[in-house]
Specification:
Elements lengths: L3 H12 L1 H7 L10 E5 L5 H7 L5 E6 L2 H14 L7 E5 L11 E7 L8 H11 E11 L20 H4 L2 H11 L17 H9 L3 E8 L8 H7 L5 H4 L3 E7 L2
Parallel strand pairs: 1-2, 1-4, 2-3, 4-5
Antiparallel strand pairs: 5-7, 6-7
């Protein structure tokens, strides 16, 4: 399971954790805190956070192959964190038990999360009083590569230009399994406007919300174009948000 491909990806993700927290204004105090890593993937976020003396980290994901890798990688390469980290294959909306968390962290997962409003309700139930959610994600669906390459794009924004029926037929010709909806590719298809409404209508305070966070010079044009109101939806590529539980 610990193939070179997966290990290379894990190590790449581990090296990128600093950028995530820089955009949040730095890591929160993790000493003796409990953390839920939502959409933990291969476990890089959990491993990185374990270095800062949390009480416990639980990483959850819906992909069994990711969880299998994360467990084996933890056991073989990071045994010093065995008592601090637990990886689970679980849907947050089906959570059972009374465990509560100080923080929920989520990196590059909200763009894949269906029924995000319901997920935020589940997160609210899992957080302790004054608990916080830290999430950074993208590309957003209406950005030029918001399909994550999963619709086999012909040109930038082709997932928005061509009818969904055409895209689905083309996808089914290019992959083994058959789909009936773009959401079956693991994309929720939410617009920037939808995300903002979901956050505003949630049970959380919005402590921080940033868009188009990147130091890459190639993103300068996108940032400039996004300042034009009617183009903002199509030139906003990511969101970083901190949500705090209301008293």
């Amino acid at each position: 399971m610990l193939t070179k491909k997966y290990l290379d990806y894990f190590n790449s993700e581990l090296s990128r954790q600093k950028y995530f927290w820089d955009r949040m204004g730095g890591k929160p105090d993790l000493n003796n805190k409990t953390v839920l890593d939502f959409g933990c993937g291969h476990g890089a976020m959990s491993i990185d956070l374990a270095k800062h003396n949390p009480k416990k980290i639980v990483g959850i994901d819906l992909d069994a192959s990711y969880i299998d890798f994360a467990k084996e990688n933890l056991e073989k390469n990071f045994p010093q964190y065995n008592e601090k980290i637990e990886f689970k294959l679980i849907d947050i909306n089906s959570w059972e038990g009374t465990e509560k968390f100080d923080y929920i962290v989520s990196k590059e997962t909200f763009e894949h999360t269906l029924n995000l409003d319901d997920v935020l309700k589940s997160m609210d139930q899992l957080l302790k009083p004054k608990g916080k959610i830290f999430s950074g994600f993208g590309p957003l669906y209406n950005f030029f590569n918001g399909d994550h390459g999963r619709v086999f794009p012909l040109i930038p924004w082709s997932h928005l230009i061509f009818p969904k029926s055409f895209l689905i037929r083309r996808i089914n010709r290019n992959q083994k399994k058959t789909i009936n909806s773009i959401t079956q590719l693991g994309l929720n298809m939410y617009s920037l406007e939808q995300y903002l409404k979901i956050f505003e209508n949630s049970s959380f305070n919005i402590d921080l919300l940033k868009k188009n966070c990147s130091n890459n010079p190639s993103t300068i044009l996108f940032k400039l174009m996004s300042k034009i109101k009617f183009l903002e939806e199509f030139f906003t590529f990511n969101i970083f948000v901190i949500l705090s539980k209301k008293d």
